Amino acid sequence: MISSLKRRSVAFGAALGLLLGAPALAADTLLVNGRIFTANPAAPGAEAVALRDGTILAVGSRADVEKTLEPGYATEDLGGKMLLPGLIDSHVHAVFAGFTLVAAELPPGDTSVGRLAEFAATSMKSGRGMIGDTLRIGNLTSAYWDDVAALDKVFNAPPFAETPVILAGSDAHTGWANKVLLQRAGVTTDFIAGLGEAERKYFGHAQDFTPNGFSADTGWDKVMGAVPPVSQQTMVEAARSAVKVMNSNGVTAWLDPISNGRPAAPLFDMVPTKDDLGVLPAYKTLSDAGELSAHVTGMVLLNSRSGPEALVVYDALAAKFPKTPDLMVGGIKILADGVIEYPAQTASLSRPYKNLGTPGPEVIGTDKFKALVTAADKRDALVHIHAIGDRAATDALDAIEAARKANGDSGIPHTITHLEVVKPEDRQRFKALGVIASMQLLWSGADEYTTDLVKPYLDESLSKTLYPARSLADAGAIVAGASDWPVTSPNPFLAMTVAITRQGTKGVLNPEEAMTAEQMLYAYTRNAAEAVRRSDRIGSIEPGKAADLVLVDRDLLTVAPAEIADTKVLWTMFGGKKVFQAER
After folding, report:
1. How many C-beta atoms surround the C-beta of residue 579 within 10 A?
2. pLDDT category, 19, cuts 50, 70, 90?
3. What is the chain's alpha carbon radius of gyration, rounded to the nearest angstrom?
4. What are the C-alpha distances in Å from 412 to residues 381, 437, 472?
5. pLDDT at 315 over 70
6. Which end of the chain is least crowded, N or C, by CB within 10 Å?
7. How many CA atoms lie within 13 A of 386 on its CB side?
8. What is the pLDDT of residue 8?
9. 488: closest CA among 29, 1, 4?
10. What's the CATH code, domain 96-224?
């Protein structure tokens, strides 16, 4: 699915206090007495904002703004707090994340197999962990994959021996299954022995090819294909839960990169059809009920080896779910590689992994892929490419360059996401090609992931350039904020702090790549609005744009960077209605 493996606690903070049914403000409303960040470079600050019928009417000095209001307008005193445009996440699997809120997810920080066994037994008994007849436990860190023999002793013995069990990694790229589920999936000794060396890499096995239960990426897909489907009712519940969490974090728009996929289902080697509707019906259910308090841009996952003919799937879903103000099918998503950390190491690099002697698979560096991107660009579809490694990023840029040469500059802000490593010579290509860098900068500190699972296995020329956010920004790239929730927290303020400090649990990572607070505010507003292709309507506080606003308890441009992480959202407004308000 998704992105690089990060193992952090995810705390969602105070009670949500959702007010989806709250009435709109008065027809005309004046917002005053706050520190207003407009995300409009031409006029970044203002004294007042006027709203009318869910739209921003005027922005500027109080005297000028008041002149635009009809008599009898309401006034809201912001109490000296900071007003921002509604925040935007340029890469979040919201419904997949919502599923983790209603499923059985191992609490963050647990690494004991004994504790895992207790949690699994409780989840099986309560039914929370069951999908049909299969027990699924999520949010396991890669530490568990270091001792799969211990998992074998527990989950191939009573009370689990007769139950299909799947343990999902928190990166959504890796996992482990017991013998019952492996047999159902057809992952046997003979199956693994019959694979080529490249395909065998995705399955853990003994020397005699007996599977040990571990799998990654396409191997994980093979195993997940044996899990019963999650019900539509559960997906609607997951979507509803996700919207509440996003609004509570000040987020009012996002790009969902795999909208035609489903939670707990194959994704990496999936060859989608027009009948694979994924989470789009769940979003539409909320939209039809007036509960989708966000602008969602859904992307259609296509197989990485697809050619232009696969765009019939995008065409069909775009027609089935016509664009509305809160939901649209915006384009296609492609996985250019996997993940960079040990033991999966499926990201595509320019230099070999130290322990493997190979640079990982090259997936999209083909003429067929260039033809796919060119055809998508020509039919006005956004292209969103997952690229962890620097070779994958080069291949992605090459494909977009081919589209620009063939079609001219369409102006479509194609996006590459994750970008843990980028070649120095590629950084200026983002601006030249009009490509947005969607980055999950909560990951950019020195922690157990970067220090223990990534850097020891990379050539030094790569490890010293991990998460090159500032280099990309200095080269003129538009950097957009993103979370990749449920891989890590959806809280933008946590990501802003790490992006500015580069501080993690094990120190500071590549401090020369630190961003500024102002850069990060733009990353989550104006820049991300371009990435979700809605900048005409959201992303800044300007007349004519939607009254999507968030009030926070501190001035993010003046407080110490470490204090940004503790920012509290006081209220979130979507289209002139307060859809979240913090408990007092």
Report:
1. 26
2. very low
3. 23
4. 8, 14, 19
5. yes
6. C
7. 31
8. 38
9. 4
10. 3.10.310.70
For 225, left (φ over 0), alpha (ψ -120 to 50), or beta? alpha
Tens-digit pLDDT profile for residues 367-400: 999 999 999 999 999 999 999 999 999 999 999 9
Report the C-alpha gap between 418 and 92 in whole angstroms: 12
Task: Round to whole Å and give the CA distance between 209 and 188.
Answer: 8
The pLDDT, as a whole number, for residue 18 is: 37
Q: What is the DSSP letter of 445?
A: S
- CA–CA gap between residue 108 and residue 487 (Å, rounded): 12
pLDDT band at 11 (very low <50, low <70, confident <90, very high): very low
One DSSP character per residue, 276-307 reads: --TTHHHHHHHHHTT---SEEEEEEE--TT--
The burial class, CB within 10 Å (0-12 / 13-18 / 19+), for 288 is exposed
Q: Are 393 and 426 in contact (CB under 8 A)?
A: yes
The C-alpha atoms of residue 279 and residue 259 are separated, in whole angstroms, by 5
Average confidence score pLDDT of the chain: 93
Domain ranges, ordered by start, for the chain = 28-84+544-581, 96-224, 232-531
Distance from C-alpha of 52 to C-alpha of 83, rounded to nearest angstrom: 17
pLDDT in the model for residue 584 = 79
Contacts of 134 (CB under 8 A, 6+ apart): 163, 164, 165, 166, 181, 226, 227, 228
**For residue 162, what are its two tokens?**
């007769």
pLDDT in tens, 547-580: 999 999 999 999 999 999 999 999 999 999 999 9
DSSP assignment string, 353-372 = -TTTSS-----S-SHHHHHH
Between CA 442 and CA 122 the distance in angstroms is: 32
Rounded to 10 deg, the angle between the 148-155 and 113-126 helix axes is 40
Fold for the domain defined by 232-531: TIM Barrel (3.20.20)
CB atoms < 10 A from the CB of 98, how many? 28
- Sequence letter at residue 98: G
Q: Any residues with CB less than 8 A from the CB of 443 and at least 6 apart, and which? A: 4, 6, 420, 449, 450, 467, 488, 498
Predicted confidence (pLDDT) at residue 144 exceeds the cutoff of 80: yes
- The stretches of 127-157 forming alpha helices (DSSP H) are 148-155
Spatial distance between the Cα atoms of 131 and 129, rounded to a whole number of angstroms: 7
Give the residue among 486, 380, 351, 326 at the shortest CA–CA distance from 6. Answer: 486
Contact 240, 232 (CB under 8 A): no
**Which CATH fold would you assign to the domain 28-84+544-581?**
Urease, subunit C; domain 1 (2.30.40)
What's the pLDDT tens digit per position in 298-311? 999 999 999 999 99
Identity of the residue numbered 138: G
Measured CA to CA in angstroms, residue 363 lies from 143, 178, 306 at distances of 27, 30, 11
**What CA–CA distance (Å, rounded) separates 110 from 118?**
11
Q: Can you tell me the distance from the alpha carbon of 77 to that of 31, in angstroms, rounded to the nearest whole number?
A: 6
Residue reference for tokens 């991300």: 528
CB 342 within 8 Å of CB 355: yes
Contact 573, 549 (CB under 8 A): yes
